[in-house]
Design a protein that fits this description.
Strand content: 5-15%
Order of helices and strands: EEHHHEHH
Strand order of the largest sheet: 1-2-3
Shape: elongated
Radius of gyration: 20 Å
Structural class: mainly alpha
Number of helices: 5
Number of strands: 3
């Protein structure tokens, strides 16, 4: 089973049973560009070093462009802005609740 991370291809077949995050996440990204998922989890330096053991080659230049566009389109779904808006709304509501409870007479 292979996946691409940062335009490098890794054969993680022998790592499936050892993966701390479980088999499912590897299977979900099998044969796909997995950079966003890899970075989103926040892997440790040890995990990054371990990854080099499974390196089998570089992603073809044509695939890099196609995958970069595909990944970019998925990432630009607005989730970043939604997260900011939700955080601000929560902060305003928390501030309002604090004000109301502290000003009870």
């Amino acid at each position: 089973m292979w996946m691409s991370i940062h335009n490098k291809i890794y054969d993680v077949t022998s790592f499936i049973d050892e993966h701390p995050g479980g088999v499912e996440v590897l299977l979900e990204h099998a044969g796909l560009e997995a950079t966003y998922a890899f970075e989103d989890v926040g892997h440790s330096m040890d995990a990054r070093d371990l990854l080099s053991q499974y390196y089998i080659g570089d992603l073809h230049e044509d695939e890099r462009k196609a995958k970069a566009i595909e990944t970019s389109n998925k990432e630009d779904g607005g989730s970043g802005l939604n997260g900011i808006v939700m955080s601000l709304a929560f902060a305003v509501l928390a501030g309002l609740a604090f004000y109301i409870f502290n000003n009870r007479a």
